[in-house]
Structures are given as structure tokens and as C-alpha cells.
Amino acid sequence: METLISIIGGSNVDLSATLNDAFIAADSNPGHIEVGYGGVARNIAHNLSLLGARTQLLTVFGGDLFGGLLHDYCKQLGIDIHLSDRVNAQRSGIYLCLNNHGGEMIAAVADTEVIRTITPEWLAKRSGEINLSDYIVADTNITEDSIRWLMENVTVPLFIDGVSTTKAHRVVNALSKAKLPYLHTLKLNLKEALAVTEAATYAEAAQKLLDLGVAHVYITLGSEGVYCRTAAEEWLFPALPGEVVNTTGAGDAFLAGVVYAHAKGIDFPQTAQYGLMAARATLMSPKAVNPDIANILL
Questions:
Q1: Tens digits of per-residue pLDDT, 69-83?
Q2: pTM to 2 decimals?
Q3: Is 18 contained in some domain?
Q4: What is the CATH number of the domain that holds 212?
Q5: 17 lies in a domain?
Q6: What is the DSSP string of the chain?
Q7: Could you tell me whether strands 234-237 and 226-229 are parallel, antiparallel, or unpaired per DSSP bridges?
């Protein structure tokens, strides 16, 4: 039977501005603006769909024009959204990003209030179908209570993306309150990992996350690669070479690559190599999801 991966969390419209030259504060800066479809969960689902996986996205679309566009685009991609909702009274999620002329993020603002509609009660109504999945992926755009519900109620491997330093705390808080704290995989970037653990190094941060109940820890280090840790082993893999065009979505692609590798039966830590290849594919694209990722990764 074909592997089914359920992805739970944010979907939004991406507005990505990239400067032509060095950033000048409090001034109008020449550059170009891309409008696309994003959201961590949606990006992961999009990447997995392009890689040929059977994907099921659980998200909430706003009732505005953006919500309609997001809804229809997911269907065009072949992503199953029958467990998602569209809420007319809510505005759609929007992610606004400013990149320097090298494609690296200067700052970003995420309006993901609509995703708070994904409550434990919302998930419980879908629990039967959720647990028919082979793997479940969630982002921390959903609430701490919803993350805890997933930890306590899903019966298949659960992967979580930390999203940001603010939202990544939801995972740690949920683990500290869960009845039987366990999480198959947690992916954080370095800033997120140090913030949520108050550690001084990525190795110390990973150990603290293992102590909380995480089985597989991936801490992405940007141009330095990725640090991977379980209770039994640790690995540091260098980043793969490639021209950086845009950093938005690279972390989402990394986790998609890791999940895809697990679904293919590839063991830790080799799964990280798939994550790095997926991240590189995204870094080389002006879009948050590289439409050619399958040609690059497979």
C-alpha cells in the first residue's frame, strides 16, 4: 500500500521582497517582490507531493480571495485537503519576508492567526483518519495544546518543525506537560534550538531535547550544515555547495526530505542527506518550493 503522509499546520500566501543592493533602513529600497504560496505545513506537503508521496494536508483556509487561491492551488498539486477547513470569518495567513541582495532573510512577519482554529477538538474529530497515516508532520503554527494532543493521541511517527524561536517553545512546553512525553523527530534551526533549551551549544541543546522525550533531533546550522542526534549517536554533516538565491522555505524542504527518506526506509542518520539535498534545491530557487526538486533529489 502506498505510504500516506499527513501534514498539519499553516498555509498562507508568501510575499517575498529581495533587495537589489544593500539594505537602507527607514527608506524605500529598490528590489523585486515575488507572490507565492507558502506556510510551513503547506510547503512540506508541496515538496512531498512533488517527490511523489501521497500527501494529506490538514489546514484552515481563510474566507478571502487568498484563501480561495490557496485552496484551489493545493487541489491542483494533487494534495488531499478533504480534512481541511475554509472559515469565511477568518482572513488567510500571510507571510511577509524581506531578503538582502544575496537572498538571505533580513526580517519576516507571519500572520497565522487563522491556524489557531486547529484546536484539540478540531483534531479529535479527524483522529480516525489522521491515524490511518503512516507518518504525521506538524508545524508549530498550531497551538501548544494541539501539539500536546498530537503527542498524546497519534499512533504513528510524529515529526515536528519548530518554525520560529517564538513558536518552537510550544514543542518544549507540550513535551513537559504530555502524559507520556515522546516525539519521533524534531527539526529546529540553531537559533530556535538555543532559545528553547537555553543551551550554549547545539550539542547541549540536542541533549536537552533528548532528555525531554525527543527520539531524533535535527538542528540545521545554515551554511555549516546540520547536527543530528539520537540517544545512541551524533553526526555533523556539512552543507551541500550551491548558489543561494533565496533562503525562504529551505528549512521546510529539509524536513520534507527527511520524512521522504524515512518513508523510503532509509535509516538515521542518512535521512539527513536527503534533507540537505532538498534544502539545497530550495536555496537555488527564487520560490519557497522548488518545482524541480524531484529532478534534483531523485
A1: 999 999 999 999 999
A2: 0.92
A3: no
A4: 3.40.1190.20
A5: no
A6: ---EEEEES--EEEEEEEESSS--TTS---EEEEEEEE-HHHHHHHHHHHTT-EEEEE-EEESSHHHHHHHHHHHHTT-B-TT-EEETTSPPEEEEEEE-TTS-EEEEEEE-GGGGG--HHHHHTTHHHHTTSSEEEEETTS-HHHHHHHHHH--S-EEEE--SHHHHHHHHHHHHH-SS--EEEEEEEHHHHHHHHT-SSHHHHHHHHHHHTEEEEEEE-GGG-EEEE-SS-EEEEPPPP---S--TTHHHHHHHHHHHHHHTTPPTTTHHHHHHHHHHHHHTSSSSS-TTHHHHH-
A7: antiparallel
13-63 pLDDT, tens digit each: 989 899 999 999 999 999 999 888 999 999 999 999 999 999 999 999 999
Q: Evaluate whether residue 136 is within a structural domain.
A: yes
Taking the CA atoms of residue 148, residue 114, residue 5 and residue 151 in that order, the dihedral angle to the nearest 10 degrees is 0
Domain that holds residue 83: 4-10+40-91+114-297
**Predicted confidence band at 1 (pLDDT cuts at 50, 70, 90)?**
very low
Query: Residue 208 above 90 pLDDT?
Result: yes
Amino acid in position 212: L
Asked if residue 24 is part of any domain, the answer here is no
Report how far apart the first and last C-alpha atoms of the chain are (Å, whole number): 21
Q: Please tell me the total count of domains within the chain.
A: 1
